[in-house]
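User: Before I run my own analysis I want an independent prediction to cross-check against. Here's the chain; please return only the structure tokens and, at the end, one sentence I can use as a sanity check.
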Amino acid sequence: MRIAIIQFPGSNCERETILAVKRAEMEPVEFLWNQSKEELANFAGYIIVGGFSYEDRSRSGAIAALDPIMQVIREQSELGKPVLGICNGAQILVETGLVPGLENHKIGMALTDNKRVRDGQVLGTGFYNAWVNMRLADEYQYNAFTRYLTPLNVLHIPVAHGEGRFVIPPALLEEIKVHGLGVFQYCDANGRIIDEFPVNPNGSVNNIAAVSNKSGNVMAMMPHPERTTNGDAIFQSMRDHIAKGHVERVDPLQYFPRSPTITQYNAPQSAHELIVDLMITDNQAVSVENALNHLGIPAKIKRQVHWEIECDAKAYEKIIQSGVLFNDRKEVALNVSDVKSTHAASFLVRAQEDILGQQKKQMLEHHFDIQGVRAIRHSVLWHIAEEKVAEQVINSHIIFNPYAHDCYYY
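Assistant: Structure tokens:
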């Protein structure tokens, strides 16, 4: 059984994955994103490894999800072949719509910024590296990756990610629960599902650690089962699924995603707008532009950071002097009116929970003793030089995921 170990620029977990596949008595074959796509049909299964594809530019998995190789993997998955995405691989599967499996593989959920909150305090955001526990959900789907496990088996395995929080609309979450597609959940050492850090390491809805499609042959998992023999049962299950050769034919999930509504951004009257631009090359913008160009979308992209700060003038001056919101050695603050007048189409993208903005406010209050800050909100400004391609850029989902972000015309 030959298993393709799919790697993109920035993937870094291929060695551990190869060893796990070998322990399950399958044959791993490294497969790079730029190899001949036609060769993919010759494999029995696929694992998209962890790491940081394209350095997580724009957001984790967004650029790799648009690569032509993912269209081939989608086609092979429809033949019943198993596809496992681990960590960054999970993010890629979510961004391609391969999980949870809506009609025409529409995007229906997001994997977004971790949040570690306890008693109303933001303990941390971003990358988190630790050992956690997970187990099968009580009502789990018996699928290509669960044959050797029950909810009584608590797996102690590592996590290492910055954007591992599953965000799922309530209606879709209920359908996922009905079909058992939230296959694995974070738990404590005794198997108890406790929705609190550190048991839930990233704030994922319903403590979800992995989601599968309705056919049961595609799974997106944030923890790293390949890094320990504790996760070997997942790969052994994959092997037996292939040996059985059964193709499950099912209808897609019923949830129908709505098109995102984009409205005009208007800053609160009491707010200061701070727009931050890099003095050096912005590799995130370059990578997004290159990905769009490969899709045949001739877009010129510029990216800036936007802060919306509600406070009085005295507190605002202290915030600027603190250096918390930008680094004046490599970044520069811009005049808002100049930014609005120099681009054909501009979009402001803000995380719906905006944990980063909350964390910065907390830091300014607790570490710099700056009082009177009512709110700080973090966003990213995406500027498109050609208005005629703006709709194509939005529809590609490369600059925002509607289940994790709000988007505004700026």
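Sanity check: The mean pLDDT is 95.
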